[in-house]
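Design request, tokens follow.
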């Protein structure tokens, strides 16, 4: 890639932001599609290495009086897990962990499947960073290996199943959990302003999803 560094970075972020094809990208940067693709591939990997240190679990938590709405009843929550789905030739899912502050502290490796069946995420690497008594909030639209949580006495908070009549306490818990998830949902929408996460991607981009997520989430943390 003989472009100057600035041009390579501009090309890469233009691809992330607009999800335009490499043919369209080539026109805008006055080059050939295969060159644009090669330049993107090399640059996104280099950027991912630079941004990887920005995604980490913070040692300190927000003071209870500084927690955002929805988290006051969950002072021991260290991360809320959210599953992002990316449209491609195969179903691609990535698990993101977000702290109440909005800081992204966890990224799973990409899970892909041709079927629509449930995908189970192993979060052992996240659990290693947590302390007994900490909690995570999860959801019902994906599954995690909860055994690794229980073995370290990590509390798993998820909405109660809505089938049948819920008790008053479970209804109240659902309301609080959903309020927390709504707050985090706004952060996810910011990530999806990068159309590569919200529109169908080219097959040639699929091998770089891990790098793409690292760059976008790392940038999100820098801009907090």
């Amino acid at each position: 890639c003989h472009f100057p560094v600035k041009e390579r970075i501009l090309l890469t972020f233009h691809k992330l932001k607009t999800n335009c094809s490499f043919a369209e990208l080539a026109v805008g940067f006055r080059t050939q599609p295969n060159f644009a693709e090669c330049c993107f591939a090399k640059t996104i990997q280099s950027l991912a290495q630079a941004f990887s240190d920005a995604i980490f679990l913070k040692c300190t938590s927000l003071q209870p009086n500084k927690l955002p709405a929805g988290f006051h009843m969950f002072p021991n929550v260290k991360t809320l897990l959210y599953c992002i789905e990316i449209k491609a030739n195969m179903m691609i899912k990535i698990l993101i962990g977000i702290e109440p502050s909005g800081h992204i502290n966890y990224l799973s490796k990409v899970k892909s499947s041709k079927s629509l069946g449930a995908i189970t995420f192993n979060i052992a690497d996240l659990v290693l960073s947590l302390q007994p008594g900490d909690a995570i909030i999860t959801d019902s639209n994906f599954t995690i290996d909860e055994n690794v949580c229980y073995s370290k006495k990590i509390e798993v908070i998820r909405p109660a199943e809505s089938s049948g009549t819920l008790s008053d306490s479970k209804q109240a818990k659902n309301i609080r959990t959903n309020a927390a998830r709504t707050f985090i949902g706004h952060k996810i929408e910011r990530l999806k302003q990068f159309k590569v996460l919200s529109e169908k991607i080219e097959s040639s981009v699929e091998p770089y999803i891990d790098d793409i997520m690292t760059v976008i989430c790392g940038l999100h943390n820098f801009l907090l």
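Comment from the thread starter after seeing the answer: thanks! DSSP finds seven helices and eight strands in the chain.
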